[in-house]
Amino acid sequence: MTPSPAPLEFWFDFASGYVYFAALEVDALAARHGRSVLWRPFSLGSSFKVTGARGLSSTPLKSDYAARDWQRLARLKGVAFAPPADHPHIGLPALRAFYTVREQDEGLAARFGRAVITGYFSGQVSLNEPAPLAALAARLGGDEAAVMRGMGDQRIKDMAKAQGDEAVRRGVFGSPWIFVDGEPFWGADRLAMVEDWLAKGPW
Amino acid sequence: MTPSPAPLEFWFDFASGYVYFAALEVDALAARHGRSVLWRPFSLGSSFKVTGARGLSSTPLKSDYAARDWQRLARLKGVAFAPPADHPHIGLPALRAFYTVREQDEGLAARFGRAVITGYFSGQVSLNEPAPLAALAARLGGDEAAVMRGMGDQRIKDMAKAQGDEAVRRGVFGSPWIFVDGEPFWGADRLAMVEDWLAKGPW
Q: Which among A80, A130, A122, A120 has a CA at the least distance from the CA of A100?
């Protein structure tokens, strides 16, 4: 019996615009190559402290360009892109809700992560409001009360924060970010390259 | 008689790694859509002063990733990628040589720009040494003595510097950068999107 190939790792900050486009495609891409995906949200602020970068939306010149680029990508892919007016959210509640859900079930966490991203970028879900996030988790099969508790639990808070430290340790400085058997790919525009890598294998 | 469509504008810093991959393809891409290309080198440092960014090769985490990504892209495209050991060059002589050549002939300037980039990223051409740059321009049909003089001419120096100010004024913060009828596209990985834009027209 051949061992299953390792899952892809999909690292992202919930409030990163390009994540939305990658989140719509990453599971199907992996499945075409017999792979699953581990969703790994983290706070990009941890990496920014090392690289000196700032978020797109708070960087002169880049913010205008990114807003335009997101709309072009949405048109190209035939989807809407409508983050809330106060984008980007810091979104610690979403991050902590995710890691609470993940303690219950990795697959449920992936579905929750995807639902949070698509909800946020269609203006339906806040990354900062605990009760609606817990209700969303419950609609997907999670334990609403446990998620509410988790968002206030110091152990979960530490776990969510540690994910940012782990990102820096592994060289992750942007979002979205995909590891294929340890090989790093940065950016939604690298999905074709990830697919090529999965098809042809490492060099 | 239909007027010719406007040329694409190809903005770049000579020492930017991703420029190499775009430079190999941009003229053919434009030609497929009946367009020519204006090559517009500038010093990316002007934009960095506004965005607070630093060069890839001097940014922690990013520098390691970029070096790896360039080699992957080179493999994918079947080309070599071998910048000099002291990459990135600041390259003011190359920039000034370009704008001297451009005063002679826009098409010659494009050929010169491409030759400098492919030479630099195969370790054959320095961006900092005036005499070999003037000799390269001469081999392509330029006036060697004029290029040597131009690199020391305050008027050309000012012209080269002004290109950086113009970049900032027009929102250019990265390299390579392409304008299609004023529409901005950042990055070598945006060539497919540029092609889509040329095929379908503006929204």
A: A130
C-alpha pair distances (Å), A43 with each of A40, A165, A183, B200:
10, 9, 21, 38
Compute CA B163 distance to the chain's CA centroid, rounded to the nearest angstrom.
12
In B, which residues are within 8 Å of A62 by CB distance?
Answer: 51, 173
Give me A59's structure tokens: 């960087």
pLDDT (tens, 9 = 90+) of chain A, 203 residues, equals 567 799 999 999 999 999 999 999 999 999 999 999 999 999 998 888 888 888 888 888 899 999 999 999 999 899 999 999 999 999 999 999 999 999 999 999 999 999 999 999 999 999 999 999 999 999 999 999 999 999 999 999 999 999 999 999 999 999 999 999 999 999 999 999 999 999 988 87
Contact at CB, B68 and A193, closer than 8 angstroms = no
Q: Determine which of B42, B44, B58, B62 to mutate to test the interface with A (most A C-beta atoms within 10 Å).
A: B62
pTM of the shown model = 0.91
ipTM score here?
Answer: 0.86
A187, A17 in Cβ contact below 8 A? Answer: no
Q: CA-to-CA distance for A26 and A31, rounded, in angstroms?
A: 9
Token pair 């409508």 is found at A82
